[in-house]
């Protein structure tokens, strides 16, 4: 199995950390996003969406980090707490995974990009109002993570880590 990743990307880090932590054998294939390798012809033949992460398992190719994580859970028979068989518990994991793309991921990424890329590209600091708005949006998402999903529990499902927690962690780390 091959994983095409750039660890600067939180979704790639989630896939990488999961595979490493569970000792899932894979070949790491670096796709350097800063060099634009996701747009080269070779990678384009592998993935028309030109984004990482990508999993290649024989002739089967899969994109999207959450789909890859769910595939690995089912293929590799990992502990149930990662993606529970219980319908309602699994629905909670899926609820978070569905919510996070346009909330925590989007807002954390915006703050990260404004703090790191904007000054480099624009040659100046981000206007204070723009940064304040981005930080406020991120804080609202973090509060929602705590109030709706964690609710004073150590993990989203309770006492054991799940894919939802792993995906949340890499965004917060960023």
TrEMBL record:
InterPro entries: Glutathione-S-Trfase_C-like (IPR010987), Glutathione-S-Trfase_C_sf (IPR036282), Glutathione_S-Trfase (IPR040079), Glutathione_S-Trfase_N (IPR004045), GST_C (IPR004046), GST_Theta (IPR051369), Thioredoxin-like_sf (IPR036249). It is found in: Cytoplasm. Residues 86-174 form the GST C-terminal domain. Residues 1-80 form the GST N-terminal domain. PROSITE patterns: GST_CTER (PS50405), GST_NTER (PS50404). Keywords: Cytoplasm. Belongs to the GST superfamily. This is Glutathione transferase. It comes from Xenotaenia resolanae.
């Amino acid at each position: 199995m091959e994983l095409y990743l750039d660890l600067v990307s939180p979704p790639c880090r989630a896939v990488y950390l999961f595979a490493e932590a569970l000792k899932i054998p894979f070949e790491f294939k670096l796709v350097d996003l800063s060099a634009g390798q996701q747009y080269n012809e070779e990678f384009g033949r592998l993935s028309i969406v030109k984004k990482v992460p990508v999993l290649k398992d024989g002739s089967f190719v899969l994109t999207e980090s959450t789909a890859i994580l769910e595939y690995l859970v089912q293929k590799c028979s990992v502990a149930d707490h990662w993606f529970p068989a219980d319908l309602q518990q699994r629905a909670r994991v899926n609820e978070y995974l569905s919510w996070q793309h346009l909330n925590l991921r989007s807002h954390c990424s915006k703050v990260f990009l404004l703090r790191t890329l904007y000054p480099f590209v624009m040659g100046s600091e981000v206007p204070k109002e723009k940064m304040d708005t981005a930080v406020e949006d991120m804080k609202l998402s973090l509060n929602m993570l705590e109030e709706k999903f964690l609710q004073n529990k150590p993990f989203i499902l309770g006492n054991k880590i799940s894919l939802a927690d792993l995906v949340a962690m890499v965004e917060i780390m960023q």
